[in-house]
Write a structure and sequence with these properties.
heterotrimer; A alpha+beta; B alpha/beta; C alpha/beta; A: alpha+beta; 3-stranded antiparallel sheet; 16 helices; about 15% strand; C: alpha/beta; Rossmann fold; 2 domains; about 35% helix
């Protein structure tokens, strides 16, 4: 865990390479990397997740839907809204609870806030240092202070949105089945307008900054999966689609994908039913739903000319995130402008038995929840599939495909390129670990 | 009764907006009742439409519900969770801004910002509460500048109650339902409008602007009858005759344990109470500790930290201690301190207690009427009760920058700072007084003055936490800021013509040293002078060279003893009382002055009493948590006393059993 | 749990030069990362603070690594594997001030609910191959394993309290982290008590303040994520809930993110255990 400093392994000698990074840095959660190439052939390419399991699917058994919303937020400190949104929509869909349109808009605003906070964190604090050659944003600030401050300011606006709508920037308190725990006044929401205008400016500048970077060249064809919605960029609702023609309802996730356990990881890995890996996240969304981007974001993407590169080179995910920063801030501005307080904070509802399944788009990609509620309306079984666990197989496949390209480099540089690759997927390892599968059960 | 300065007028309901207009024309923002979060709270109003028309409340212990009243009145509610102290004694008040840089330490008091307000809908009980808090905020040596400014800037528009809630008991407390004094305007709501009368010059001015038709006799009669009906409904739930004495004598009643089982010590009762005034001070600073601010916020005697002193000892560790403190203060010792009851019978504490504790019920069990009280634990109103009329002027706090001269390391953790100043107030300090010592970015402790000189003061400080550690670390030519001197010091003149006995334990010698200086400066005036000094070990003794010099004098006796020592110590080993528990001198001719840990003082007091020293000739100095030092934060109370302004020096006769009683 | 934070070792007046910047570490055990993220959420002050301290270990934020020594080590997460128990003991030996941050580190976290369940049942329902997964039977707070010098409570910790702690650390004064009920914060803010006015079960009276009374301000009851305060009288509150709220199952009100802390744990045990336990008993013994 923390006892190994830096990396280990034997040096690259032309066709051999062994890299062990005992504790990946600038990723969320605890994972390590193992890569072994012998005679030009990749023997092992593993993202080892040793994050301690917390057994969330067992913890929610016996709980009410509102309690579940509070609990699942704690799966991840960076994307708690993703868990809350997926859970609350699953319960409302399963119990047939109608949602006021202003509530729906507030939830989208909340998710915009999390996307902004999460993507700004990743772009500026976690990933950009790799591109500019620094071990951390704190070091990067010595020579690029204005950029780090801009990134922190952008992250702050994301947090402000979540804090206003959710009550708290991390682990919001106000999301309830049927709506929220209190009505937000228009005067409160309006206060976001000024900070969001500055944030949009920073987001557009971020696209320019990132477009000028020179990531390693690595083009491959990956199977990309995301939600798709007929009239908006996917966040809280949509059907599951892929670059190879998949199109199923969100609740039918199990029909397209399955999970298995591997010895080197506390996280279950997901693959398509054909056994092949697939990739979620901003690059997938841009590829599959760019036509739904906010016009300002669409124009920004077009001006970069890199939509194809985003699809094929995972290093360009940093640009996908920057475009989504533009989209989320632009959408948030519109949502704030249009907000009118609803008459009541939530729709009243009655607990009862139900099957509750849903998917939303977390900052890192598609996230799927599946609950069965018993006669009293308490959770009897739960299944939670976060994006990073679904990405694991694809990350390892990309790792294996990329490894030969760095065989000729000095080991330290090779390691750096590979860590930069891992970070391109913005893995959220605490999320990936929690989940577990109870029983295989077909959707009725 | 209100003086009949102007004829009551009648304001029709539909024209209530004219009152709003008149108040706004007077440059005031209107604070009044409105519905928020399913309660009626006091907030800024711009329009009569914001009033809670058609609403009333149903209350019970631990419950408050808004319900329709069935009629169109706006003031049918009983008081809610907000009280007017939110605007006269706000939850957060900035106190000072300070700097510590090359030029030294400078502390500036923050001027109060008192907006011009009109309080609309103040009930009789609330008027009394405002008056009670006036006395509490003005009873110390300074008064409270912020509170005074806010009171001066607010106009009070009272509303006589037409409805009582189940938790109201103003009739028992003599505070309502009829409005007596304290308002500028008094309104009574009838179905079709309001009877309006002026009760002050400011009220007359507003009334004059309204140009109302005179109220008809049946209207004023209806208003009076409403109030009488409220009185009849309420009855007299808590007979209060003799209650202060009965309660004071019930400190050991078994009911305290029973209520402590239920009490959550959550502080809700104290924070909804319109008269509770306790606050704490917090500090903030920049990352370098160069600029700092302090602010004051609502606190409560129910919080554990309220009774904590340096070294993490705590005077009210148990919930039982704190509940008892609150109830006895409110209904008994408040009389000693401020000349009235602290409770106005508004019932908020009953409704807003999360577990529904009802003080009416508790009082009836702990101090039932008709039962002769037992012996009083301390003399009644020893300070003569306090309710000066008119109230004394409010004086702003003074922050005086002083410079460190010599620094003497008395022991491993105790330092004496010689401070130079020409400030005449500081130089006029009396033996036994203390100052509040401030460095920006640190908490502000009270420190005893250990010497008074023509050109400055000495402070002897033990490092017991971060703030005192910072003081102990000061060097020559550093500066710090002082407030004071505060407190009642040693009554030196009282010992004239008598023998003097001084008992000091550890750092307790520090506040006694100015007393010794004063006695020796006028030696012939006193009889035999005997000093008994105790310390933990030889290395913990203070002022060693000075005490040795005193010991060499023929005109006084100095004996010392340590709790434990190594072989290098040739003196006595044991507790300080051993120095005089076999004494043969006649204590009836002596005045004793003591300072040290309370346990030590208790033991010494017992021995001195056996020697014949009278309790009204035995003087001690008490230590308590102090945030303000001037009697407005509430931290330093012991029974009826504020240690900061009634003490810290007290005679045992004054204290009675408040001295040494645990959990008081 | 750890007692109140002791005063930090005092340093001299600011004008005296401190020989070196304090070495700061941030480490994580079983947790969601939210408390560490609060450090990065200091946004406006992050760079200013970073200039006055030396962050030598903070895996999420920097690729610099260090295994110690540390002047101040912030520890997030509960101890739930054998490896973690060994590591926290090692870290204690190289740390001057060990500061636990968050409900997981200070109270065991929400994952401590499994402490009431049979561990094998939990592992087996979680993973088909439980042998691959190393975990202890209990998820426990750090203070169960090593002495803790200070703690910041919360789920997550409060940015305001973190800021206060860091400023106190840098200026050498005692951090002001009051141990009082959430109720004081509600009343100072003017938030109407949801329990008294709406009959909502709220743990505010027995929970330590620090969050700013968010939940009542947002119209729901406090669920105790800052943990029990001093003198937390959960028995009295539980009795009141049982008599007045609609919730028939009072135990679940205390079975939240600090369930394993003394007064909460006592209340849960007295009231029949946390939700999900019946399911646990039904399953134990299954293959």
């Amino acid at each position: 865990m923390h006892d190994a400093i830096g990396t280990g392994g034997t040096g690259g000698t032309g066709n051999n390479l062994e890299i062990d990074v005992a504790g990946l840095t600038r990723v969320e959660g605890e994972g390590s990397l193992r890569l072994l190439v012998r005679d030009g052939v990749v023997q092992e390419a593993r993202l080892e997740i040793f994050e301690a399991p917390r057994y969330f699917e067992r913890l929610v058994v016996g709980r009410t839907p509102d309690e579940v919303i509070d609990i699942v937020a704690r799966i991840c400190g960076i994307c708690p809204v993703a868990y809350q949104m997926t859970a609350v929509h699953a319960f409302e869909h399963g119990l047939g609870i109608p949602i006021d349109p202003q509530i729906r808009a507030l939830r989208r605003l909340l998710y915009c806030g999390e996307w902004i906070e999460s993507h700004a964190l990743h772009v500026f604090l976690l990933h950009l240092p790799d591109f500019l050659g620094y071990p951390s944003a704190l070091d990067m600030a010595k020579n690029h202070r204005a950029w780090v401050e801009a990134g922190l300011a952008l992250k702050k606006v994301g947090n402000q949105i979540v804090e206003l709508v959710g009550g708290r920037a991390i682990h919001p308190v106000s999301v309830r089945v049927g709506g929220f725990s209190r009505v937000l006044r228009r005067s409160e929401v309006e206060r976001l307008a000024g900070p969001l205008t500055s944030a949009l400016r920073i987001a557009l500048d971020t696209v320019d900054l990132v477009t000028g970077l020179e990531p390693p060249s690595f083009d491959r064809t990956a199977r990309l999966v995301a939600l798709r919605h007929p009239s908006e960029y996917p966040m809280n609702e949509g059907r599951i689609v892929s670059t190879d023609g998949l199109d199923v309802a969100a609740g039918d996730w199990p029909s397209a994908f399955e999970e298995s356990q591997v010895a080197w990881s506390h996280a279950l890995q997901a693959r398509g039913r054909d056994g092949n890996p697939y990739l979620l996240g901003p690059s997938a969304r841009i590829t599959l739903a760019a036509d739904q981007l906010h016009p300002i974001a669409a124009a920004s993407l077009a001006s970069t000319g890199r939509a194809a590169a985003i699809r094929s080179n995972p290093y360009w995910s940093i640009l996908a995130r920057a475009i989504e920063l533009v989209d989320a801030t632009a959408e948030a501005i519109d949502l704030v402008e249009a907000y009118r307080a609803p008459d009541r904070p939530s729709t009243p509802w009655q607990p009862g038995p139900a099957r509750a399944s849903w998917a939303t788009e977390a900052p890192r990609g598609l996230i799927f929840h599946d609950y069965r509620l018993d006669e009293e309306g308490h959770v009897a079984e739960a299944r939670i599939v976060p994006p990073t666990s679904q990405n694991q197989a694809a990350i390892e496949a990309d790792l294996a495909a990329f490894a030969p390209r760095v065989l000729a480099l000095p080991r330290e540089q090779a390691t750096h390129r590979i860590e930069q690759l891992i970070r391109s997927y913005d893995p959220c390892i605490s999320c990936a670990t929690h989940f577990l599968r109870l029983d295989l059960e077909t959707v009725p | 009764m209100t003086s009949p300065r102007a004829q009551p007028g009648f304001l029709p309901r539909a024209e209530f907006g004219r009152l709003f207009a008149a108040l706004e024309a007077d440059g005031r923002r209107i604070i009044g009742p409105t519905v928020a979060e399913e309660a009626i709270v006091y907030d800024e109003l711009h329009d009569p439409a914001q009033l809670p028309v058609g609403m009333t409340v149903e209350t019970a212990p631990g419950a408050y519900r808004l319900v329709p009243s069935g009629r169109d009145r706006a003031f049918d509610y009983a008081v809610g969770p907000t009280s007017w102290k939110r605007f006269t004694h706000p939850p957060l008040v900035p106190l000072t801004v300070s700097r510590r840089d090359g030029a030294g330490v400078d502390v500036q008091a923050t001027a109060p910002s008192a907006p011009r307000l009109a309080f609309l809908g103040v009930r009789a009980c609330e008027l009394q509460a405002l008056a009670i808090q006036d006395r509490a905020m003005r009873a110390g040596p300074l008064g409270d500048v912020d509170h005074a400014a806010r009171r001066d800037a607010s106009l009070v528009v009272a509303m006589e109650c037409a409805v009582a809630a189940e938790t109201c008991f103003c009739t028992s407390m003599g505070t309502g339902p009829e409005v007596a004094s304290g308002a500028d305007l008094v309104l009574s709501e009838l179905d079709d409008g309001f009877v309006v009368r002026a009760a002050s010059h400011a009220g007359e001015a507003i009334l004059g602007q309204l140009g109302l038709a005179p109220a008809a006799a049946e209207q004023t009669n209806a208003a009076a009858e409403q109030a009488r009906e409220v009185r009849r409904t309420m009855g007299d739930p808590v007979p209060t005759v003799g209650l202060p004495e009965r309660l004071r004598a019930s400190l050991d009643h078994p009911r305290w344990d029973v209520v402590a089982e239920r009490c959550l010590a959550c502080a809700n009762c104290t924070l909804v109470c319109p008269t509770c005034f306790c606050t704490s001070v917090s500090v903030a600073s920049d990352l370098d500790g160069v600029t700092g601010t302090t602010e004051r916020s609502w606190d409560s005697c129910f919080s554990l930290g309220f009774g904590r002193v340096a070294g993490d000892a705590n005077f009210r560790p148990k919930v039982k201690d704190r509940y008892r403190q609150w109830l006895t203060h409110k209904f008994s010792t408040w009389w000693d301190q401020f000349g009235s009851s602290g409770c106005v019978g508004c019932g908020r504490c009953i409704a807003w207690c999360p577990v529904g504790i009802d003080i009416r019920e508790e009082l009836l069990v702990i101090a039932p009427p008709g039962v002769e009280p037992g012996p009083a634990p301390w003399p009644a109103a020893p300070m003569g009760g306090r309710a000066p009329d008119p109230l004394p002027a409010v004086l702003p706090a003074r922050h005086v920058t002083v410079r460190v001269g010599d620094v003497v390391h008395e022991t491993a953790d105790t330092v004496s700072l010689s401070l130079a100043t020409d400030d005449r107030t500081l130089l006029g300090a009396q033996p036994g007084q203390f100052v509040m010592a401030e460095l920006p970015a640190f908490a502000i402790p009270p420190i005893s003055i250990s010497r008074i000189r023509p050109d400055g003061l000495d402070l002897t400080i033990r490092s017991a936490g971060a703030a005192t550690a910072a003081l102990v670390a000061l060097h020559a030519r550093d500066t710090l800021s002082l407030r004071g001197p505060y407190g009642r010091g040693w009554p030196v003149g009282e010992a004239a013509g008598r023998d003097v006995v001084i008992v000091a334990g550890g750092i307790g010698l520090a506040p006694l040293r100015p007393l010794v200086d004063a006695v020796l400066a006028d030696r012939p005036r006193f009889g035999a002078v005997r000093m008994f000094l105790g310390a933990r070990t030889p290395r913990d003794r203070l002022f060693v060279a000075e005490m040795n010099a005193l010991a060499g004098r023929a005109d006084l006796e100095v004996s010392e003893i340590v709790d434990r020592a190594g072989p290098e110590w040739l003196g006595r080993v044991g507790v300080v009382t051993q120095l005089f528990d076999r004494a043969t001198w006649d204590g009836s001719r002596a005045t004793a002055f003591m300072c040290g840990p309370e346990r030590m003082m208790q033991a010494a007091a017992a021995v001195l009493a056996r020697n014949g020293v009278a309790p009204d000739r035995t003087w001690v100095t008490l230590e308590r948590n102090m945030a303000c030092g001037v009697g407005t934060c509430g931290h330093c109370q012991v029974g009826p006393f504020f240690v900061c302004r009634d003490g810290p020096v007290f005679s045992l006769a004054e204290l009675g059993s408040a001295f040494g009683r645990e959990g008081l | 749990m750890a007692g109140p934070p002791p005063a930090p070792t005092p340093h001299h007046a600011p004008r005296a030069a401190t020989p070196r910047r304090p070495r700061i570490g941030v480490v994580k055990f079983a947790s969601c990362d939210g408390c560490q993220l609060t450090l990065l959420d200091l946004e406006d002050e992050l760079l200013a603070i970073a200039e006055r301290v030396d962050v030598v270990e903070f895996a999420e934020a920097t690729s610099h690594r260090s295994s110690g020594p540390f002047d101040v080590l912030f520890v997030e997460g509960s101890i739930s594997t054998a490896e973690q128990a060994v590591e926290i003991a090692r870290l204690r030996t190289v740390t001057r001030h060990l500061v636990t941050i968050g409900a997981c580190a200070t109270a065991g976290g929400i994952q401590a609910i499994r402490n009431w369940f049979d561990h094998e049942e939990v592992r087996q329902t979680v993973y088909p191959e439980p042998a691959f997964v190393d975990s202890l039977a209990l998820s426990r707070p750090v203070a169960d394993f090593v002495a803790v010098d200070a703690e910041l409570r919360g789920c997550p910790i409060s940015p305001g309290q973190l800021r206060e702690f860091l400023v106190a650390l840098v200026t050498g004064r005692r951090p002001q982290l009051p141990d009082e009920a959430v109720c004081l914060e509600c009343k100072r803010r003017g938030v109407v008590c949801v329990a008294v006015a709406r009959g909502i079960a709220c743990l505010g009276p027995v929970t330590r303040t620090g969050c700013g009374a968010i939940c009542p301000a947002y119209g729901r009851g406090c669920y105790g994520c800052f943990g029990p305060r001093e003198s937390a009288n959960t028995a009295s509150l539980a009795e009141w809930f049982g008599a007045t709220t609609a919730a028939p199952d009072v135990a679940r009100l205390f079975a939240g993110f600090t369930a394993w802390s003394g007064p909460n744990r006592t209340a849960i045990d007295a009231l029949g255990g946390p939700p999900g336990q019946r399911e646990a008993e039904g399953r134990s013994g299954d293959a």
